[in-house]
Specification:
The complex is a heterodimer. By secondary structure, chain A is of the alpha+beta class. Chain A is about 40% helix and about 20% strand. A four-stranded antiparallel sheet of chain A has the order 2-6-4-5. Chain A has a three-stranded antiparallel sheet with strand order 1-7-3. A three-stranded antiparallel sheet of chain A has the order 8-10-9. In chain A, a hairpin with a 2-residue loop joins strand 9 and strand 10 (about 205-210). Chain A starts with 10 loop residues before the first helix and ends in a 12-residue tail after the last helix. Chain B has helices at about 30, 35-40, 100, 125-135, 135-160, 165-180, 190-195, 200-210, 230-235, 235-245, and strands at about 45-50, 55, 65-70, 75-80, 85-90, 110-115, 120-125, 185, 215-220, 220-225. The chains are: A alpha+beta, B alpha+beta. The interface of A and B includes residues 61, 69, 132, 136 and 143 of A.
Chain lengths: ~240, ~250
């Protein structure tokens, strides 16, 4: 399928050297991702990893009682399916599309071959793994110490960072259904943000006002952003020239 | 194993005691390496004693050494607002402190705090990077360990969100027991409150309640687990889930 987004809209792919990129390019398959679609599930064979370009993928951890809890968010700075890079073990949980859009998928077999070259892609993916660990740790402490509104602002800003636009394709009720949060508290917080126009619902899409969100968010966001920016390529780039 | 290795809260942090170079330190990650890899690594490994309360790295610090705990136990803690802390992971004889180095990053995002005094092997980070390049077995072991740690982080985050302090305290005590392989340890309430990210009064209440149920004995900072199956029953499901997902590098 042809997508409107070039592969270079994913920052990991964009950061590859031209020869690495051109080796991968024939194997990158453009796809449309729809909200709620499961792209990886523990216990099932994982045939592909996903590089979002204009979609967001939530990483959900499966609890003992079968319910899911969000531990991470992957946008155009990363990839979903990192478990594959860490050997044969999956992480108990699933990866679900949170905000519809486009992305590229790569066959796991191709990725494994590429990782065995121990080149740039491996280095980038290991760094990305580190940012996921940091994201998890930071969410945990943020949840413990900051208000629901601050947490929601942080989460929305993370969404913005992972998307090329200021719009999220989310159903209006999906914020309250975020698996990590108490529904009532989150609805209140979302209403507060809407009242102050930091967030607007329009025709099934949520438009966000970054400066307003940044005013309300806790320090966790800037701290985390500073850390990630040091680790991951986040330049606004066009696709590298193929050879 | 020396007797009561964890009841050593009075060592001055930073003061390193000499350890016999021949000391046999059991770290499962190292032990699982092929013999020739392990031998080669040994030349760069230095046995050290880690003291309770010692900080191996603060967030933002360069990671000068990676540590392979033997009996020692190290908490990975995340900080907000420069004062509030929360433990997100725990590294004992199953793992390595300084994982970012293996992921190509020289700076620690966490505070690594010695929570159980004891022995460890350490290696200079640049030496370790060279070893890592040479040894596929070491790379595999660390990939698996990264995965384990990620599972632990996710579990901890979920647990902190959903479970009450008493269940979390029970889980934490059991995880500590598994890593130091002892049912006695020395811990202040303040320390526990930093670990669990809750106020001291919450820890006091939870510990008091576990004591009333005769699962632990707690006095002046000494904790003894007296009823292990009982404590397991009192902990949240996360403890069992985490133990199941834990992959021994065998």
């Amino acid at each position: 399928m042809v997508t409107p987004d070039p592969p270079g809209q994913n920052h990991l792919l964009a950061a590859l050297a031209a020869d690495d990129f051109s080796r991968l390019l024939p194997h990158l398959e453009g796809i449309e991702l729809t909200t709620g679609q499961t792209v990886a599930e523990f216990g099932f064979r994982q045939d592909y990893v996903f590089f979002p370009t204009s979609s967001l993928i939530a990483l959900l951890w499966r609890m003992e009682d079968g319910t899911h809890f969000q531990t991470g968010l992957v946008g155009n700075e990363g990839l979903a399916g990192i478990g594959l890079c860490l050997g044969e073990f999956g992480i108990p949980g699933r990866a679900v599309v949170q905000s519809a859009g486009y992305g590229y998928r790569l066959a796991s077999t191709v990725l494994k071959t590429e990782l065995d070259r121990r080149g740039q892609l491996q280095r980038l993916l290991l760094r990305f793994t580190q940012t996921l660990l940091m994201q998890m740790a930071q969410s945990a402490i943020c949840r413990e110490h900051h208000s629901t509104e601050q947490q929601l602002c942080r989460w929305l800003l993370l969404c913005l960072d992972g998307l090329p636009s200021h719009q999220l394709s989310l159903r209006q009720d999906s914020i309250a259904d975020m698996p990590a949060w108490r529904r009532a508290g989150m609805t209140d917080a979302a209403n507060q943000l809407q009242a102050s126009q930091a967030l607007q619902y329009r025709g099934g899409k949520i438009t966000l006002d970054r400066p307003k969100l940044e005013l309300r968010v806790c320090d966790c966001y800037q701290t985390g952003k500073g850390e990630f920016d040091g680790l991951l390529p986040r330049k606004q780039m066009t696709a590298p020239q193929t050879a | 194993m020396p007797s009561d290795p964890h009841i050593t809260a009075h060592t001055i942090p930073g003061e390193r005691q000499a350890v016999d170079r021949r000391a046999f330190i059991t770290n499962k990650l190292l032990n699982a390496l092929p013999r020739n890899n392990y031998r080669r690594m040994l030349t760069g490994l230095e046995p050290v004693n880690l003291a309770f309360g010692e900080v191996l790295y603060e967030p933002g610090d360069q990671i000068s050494h990676v540590y392979f705990p033997g009996i020692a136990l190290v908490s990975l803690m995340t900080l907000v607002d420069d004062r509030l802390t929360l433990e997100v992971g725990m590294v004992g004889c199953e793992g390595m402190v300084g994982l970012p180095v293996a992921l190509g990053i020289g700076v620690s995002p966490f505070r690594a705090l010695v929570q159980g005094a004891g022995t460890a092997m350490r290696m200079k980070s640049n030496w370790f990077v060279k070893e890592l390049r040479r040894s596929t077995a070491l790379q595999r072991a660390l990939q698996r360990y990264t995965h384990t740690l990620m599972a632990q982080f996710a579990q901890t985050a979920a647990c902190n969100r959903f479970h009450v302090v008493e269940e979390r305290l029970a889980r934490w005590l059991l995880m500590t027991r598994d890593r130091v392989q002892s049912t006695d340890f020395r811990l202040t309430q303040e320390f526990l409150s930093h670990m669990l990210g809750v106020r001291r009064v919450g820890v006091t209440k939870a510990a008091g309640h576990l004591q009333q149920r005769r699962l632990i004995e707690y006095s002046r900072g000494n904790i003894r687990i007296v009823d292990q199956p009982g404590l397991e029953a009192a902990s949240c499901s996360c403890y069992r889930a985490n133990r199941n997902s834990h992959i021994d590098p065998v």
